[in-house]
Amino acid sequence: MCQSLVELSLWGNQLTGSIPDSVGNLTSLELLVLARNSLSGSLPGSIGKCSSLVEIQLQENNLSGQIPREICDLGVLQKMYLFKNKIGGYIPREIWKLHSLKEFQLYNNSLIGEIPSEITLLKQLNSISLAYNNLTGEVPYFLGNTSTGLVSIDLTGNSFYGPIPPYLCSNGSLEILDLGYNRFNTVSFGSIFSCSSLTRIILRDNQLRGSLPACTFPTSAISYFDLSNNFLDGQIPKEIGSWKNLTKLDLSNNLFSGAIPTELGTITNIEMINLSSNRLVGSIPHELGHCKKLLLLDLSQNFLSGHIPVNVLTLITLQHLLLQNNKLTGSIPNLFSANQGLLELLLGKNLLDGSIPSSLGNLQYIYLGLNMSLNNFTGQIPSNLGNLDKLQVLDLSHNSLSGQIPSSLNKMVSLSSVNLSFNRLSGDIPKNWGKFVILSPGSFSGNENLNLQNLNHNFSKSINKQNDRAKRELVALAVVLGASILLAGFCVAKYAALTRARTRSISSRRLLSCSTNSTDELPEDLTYDDIMRATDNLSEKFVIGRGRHGTVYCTEFGEGKKWAVKLVDLSQSRFCVEMQVLASIKHRNLVRMSGYCIRDAIGLILCEYVPGGTLFEVLHQRTPIVALGWRTRYKISLGVAQALAYLHHDCMPMVVHRDVKSSNVLLDFDLEPKLADFGLARFVEVESDSSNTVSAIVGTLGYIAPENGYATKINEKCDVYSYGVMLLELLCRKMPVDPRFGDGVDIVKWVNLNLNQVDNFSIMNCLDEEIWYWEVDEREKALQLLELALLCTRFERETRPTMREIVNALIKIDR
C-alpha cells in the first residue's frame, strides 16, 4: 500500500518496539528518518530491499544486534547515521558495495573487530566517525585515498594500534582529524602538516613517539592542536607560531625538551596553551604576555627557571595560570588588579622568594585555588587576602612566613581547604577556621608558636550549641508535622498531602539523632568503619570535589559499587538541614541519599555516585571540548527543571534549593542530570512568615537573584532566576561572571545587550559556536530556550514563571 512512499520521517517522537521487516516493502523510499526515538531490537535485513534509499537516519535509539550485510546492497545510499545506539558485531566487508556512500556515522556503539580494508574502495566517502566503539587492529593504509577526499575522520576512543595512515589527506580536503584515546605508535607529521585544509588535529592519549618536524606551514588553518599524553620528544617547533588561527595548543604529558618558543607569543587568537609535564627548560617568554585572548596557561611540572614575566602575571584575560613544580625564582610583583579575570593561580613548588603581594586581594574572581606552597616566601600573610571571599582552596604551606594569621581571613567564607603548615606563624588562627583544625589538623603543623588550644575549645562549644539548637528545631518540627498529620486525617480530599507530610515526619524523627555525638543511619551492610577504611581515613587521593558546604570523596564498597561520601561541618546547622532535605525527597533528577553517620564532630552523608562529573566541568573545563547537541542540552534543561518543579510544587513543605548552578548539576554516563548539594536549602512553609526569613545573601556570584540583596523572605523564584542563568550558561557556554563581558556585566546583562542589537548575527553570537552548525529546526529551538531563560531571569520575581510552567514550556519547545 505504501510502496510509492518516498520519505518517511518520524524523528524525535516516542516510538518504541523494533523496526518491522515490512520496511523492505518500501522500495521507492529515499529518506528514512526514525532518529531520536526509543526503538530497540536489530536492524532488519529486509532494509536491503529498499533499493532507492539515499539517506538512513536511525541515530539515538536503543538499536542492538549487528549491521545486516543486506544493508550493503543499497547502491545509491549516501548517508548512514546509526550513531548513539547499542549496535555490536563487525563492520561488514561487503561495505565496498556502498559505492555512493559519503557519510558513515556509527560513533557511540559497541562495534568490534577491525575496519575492513574494503572501506578504501568507497571513493565518494568524505566523512567517517567510528568513535567510542570497541574496534581494534590497524587502520587501513589507504583510508582517505578517495576521489573527493575525506573532510572529517573521527576514530576516538577505540583500541587501534600501529601507524596512522599517511593518505588521510591525500586530496588536501581533510579538516578534522580526531584519533585520540587509541594506541597508535607512529605518525608522519610531515604528511599531516602539509595538509593546509586541516583545522582540528587531536592525537591525544596514544603511544606516539618521535619529534615534531621543524618546517614552516604558512597557510595552516589549524585552530585546535592536541598531542597530549604521548611519548613525543625533541623541541617544540617555533614554526607553530605561524599558525595564526590556532586557539588551543595542548602538548602536555610528553617528553618535549628545550625552550618554549618565543614565537608562540605572536599567535593573537590563542586561548589555551598547555605545555605541562614535559622537560622544558629556560625562562617563560615574556612574549606570551602579548596573547591578549589567552584564558589558560599551564606550564607546570617542567624545569623552567628565571622570573615570571610581569605581563604574563597581569594579563587581563587570563583565567588559569598554572606554573607549579618548576624552578622559577625571584619575587612576585605587587601588581595584581581588580580587572584581572584569574580564577586560579598555582605557583607551588618553585624557588620564589620575597613577600606574598598584598595586591592578590584584588583578584575578585579567583575561586578555584591559590597555591604558593613549597617556596621561599617570607614576611607576613597579607590581610588583603581576606577579600577573596570566593576562594575555595588556599595553600601557603612550606614557606618561611611569620607573624600572626590576619583575623580578616575570617571573611574567606567559601574556603573548603586550607594549608598553612611548616611556616613560622604564631598567635591564634581565625575563629571561623575551627573546622579545618578538626578535619585537617596537619594543615597547621610545623608552626611551633601557633595556638590551637583555644580554638579547639571554642569550636567544641560551638558544636554543642549547634547540636542543642538543632535538637530543639527538629523536635519542634516533629511536633508541627505530627499536628499536620492529625489535621489531615479529617481532610480526605487532601490525601496526597497527608502522605507527603507523613513521609516528612518519619524522616524527621529518624534525623533527631543528628544532634548526638555518635549516630549511624547507614545501609545494613555498611558501617562507619567501612567508610573510613575504604577512603583510607578520608585521604586526599579519594577527593572528587570540594565546595563551600563540604568535601566529597568517591570510594567503593562490597562488590565494587561506587558511592559518594560527603564530609560536612557539624558546627553549622546546614548539616541537619541537608540531611532533612535529602531524606525527604525522591526524584530521578535529584541525588539520592542512602544514609549518614556522625563521629567526633564529623558528619558524613552517603549518596549515590554520579560518574559523569558536573555540568560546569563539561561546559568549561574538559579538553577537547565536549560536543553537546540539542538533545543533550534539552535533556539537561528539562531534567533540572523537573527536579526543581518537584521541590517547589510536590514537596510539603516546599523546598527551595538556593544554590542552583552548573557545578551542582551532576551528570551520569548518559548525561542525565541530577541536582545536588542541598547545603543551603530551606523548607518553606507557605502559610508561615517567621520561618521563611533570611538574614544573609546566599548562593553563588552570578546566579544570585537581584532581590536576594534586599529581600528578607525566602521565595522559590530565586531558584527560577538561578535556573535561568544556568540555561544561559548551557546555551552560550560562558561562565555567569566573565571579565570579557565588561565591568559590572554578568551573563544576563551580556545576553540582553546582544539581543538589543536586533540583528541575527548578534543574537547567534550569544550562543555557543557549536549551535551555529545545527539543523535549522534545532537552532530555532535553541532560540526558544534562550527566550525562556530570559523570562526566568527577569528582574521582578513576580514576573518570572514557576518551575511547573517552565517544565510545560520545555515540553512544548521540543514537540
UniProtKB/TrEMBL annotation:
Enzymatic reactions: L-threonyl-[protein] + ATP = O-phospho-L-threonyl-[protein] + ADP + H(+); L-seryl-[protein] + ATP = O-phospho-L-seryl-[protein] + ADP + H(+)
Sequence intervals crossing the membrane: 474-497
Keyword check for Transferase: yes
Subcellular location: Cell membrane
GO molecular function: ATP binding; protein serine/threonine kinase activity; receptor serine/threonine kinase binding
Alphabetical keyword list: ATP-binding, Cell membrane, Glycoprotein, Kinase, Leucine-rich repeat, Membrane, Nucleotide-binding, Phosphoprotein, Receptor, Repeat, Serine/threonine-protein kinase, Signal, Transferase, Transmembrane, Transmembrane helix
SUPFAM superfamilies: L domain-like, Protein kinase-like (PK-like)
The Protein kinase domain, residue ranges: 538-811
UniProt main location, coarse: membrane
Chain residues that bind ATP: 566
Broadest EC class assigned to this enzyme: transferase
Topology in membrane: Single-pass membrane protein
Tree of life domain: Eukaryota
EC number(s) recorded for this UniProt protein: 2.7.11.1
SMART domains: LRR_TYP (SM00369), S_TKc (SM00220)
GO cellular component, one term: plasma membrane
PROSITE patterns reported in the protein's UniProt record: LRR (PS51450), PROTEIN_KINASE_ATP (PS00107), PROTEIN_KINASE_DOM (PS50011), PROTEIN_KINASE_ST (PS00108)
This protein's record includes keyword Transmembrane helix: yes
Protein's name in the database: non-specific serine/threonine protein kinase
